[in-house]
Amino acid sequence: MIVELALFQVYAWYNYPGVELWKFLNLAILAAGIYYLVQKVFIPALDARREVIRQELTKAQQERDAANAKLGEVEARLAQLDAAIEKLRQEAILEAELERKRIRLATEEEAATLGEQARREIEAAGKAARQQLRRFAAEETVRFAEQLIRRDMRPDDDERLIELEVAELGGRRR
């Protein structure tokens, strides 16, 4: 019994309340299992997830850089747009002024052409009217002379005129 007592005292620490060895052994096995799971399952999964996140961040940065580059281009184009609009406005004003001058010159040319054409038509109408007036005057003069001759002519004048005509033709009637 002494041996038993000695053994009991030697191994008594193991049955000491609150310090049970099986609890520490159970804790060690649980910790080793958790460590194994973390090392073999969770860390690779987390590493893979970290790599996916890193790739997504890299892709997002590239897309952000591309978007910033496009934004820079758009802002530069917008800055140039004001200058281009001003240039177009100035060109339109200049073109409108040139068009006004061209229209004014064309109108002046057309007016001069129409004036010249009207002058020629007036001259032609004047010539035609003068010619018609001369013809009318000649016809009226002939008619008036004929009336005067018929009124003033006597039968002996008629006979004398016939004799003069015949004498001119070469023969004498009496």
Provide a brief overview of the structure.
The protein has 174 residues and is mainly α.
Describe the structure in your own words.
- The chain is mainly α and 174 residues long.
- 90% of the residues lie in helices and 0% in strands.
- It contains 3 helices and no strands.
- The longest helix is centred in the middle third of the chain and has 132 residues.
- The radius of gyration is 68 Å and the shape is rod-shaped.
- The N and C termini lie far apart (221 Å).
What is the CA-atom radius of gyration, in angstroms?
68 Å
Overall mean confidence score, pLDDT: 83
The dominant shape is rod-shaped
Parts with pLDDT < 50 across at least 5 consecutive residues: none
Biggest sheet layout:
none
- Helix-strand string: HHH
Report, as a whole number of angstroms, the end-to-end distance. Answer: 221 Å
Question: What is the element layout, followed by pairings?
Answer:
Elements lengths: L1 H9 L10 H132 L2 H15 L5
List keywords for this structure.
mainly alpha, rod-shaped
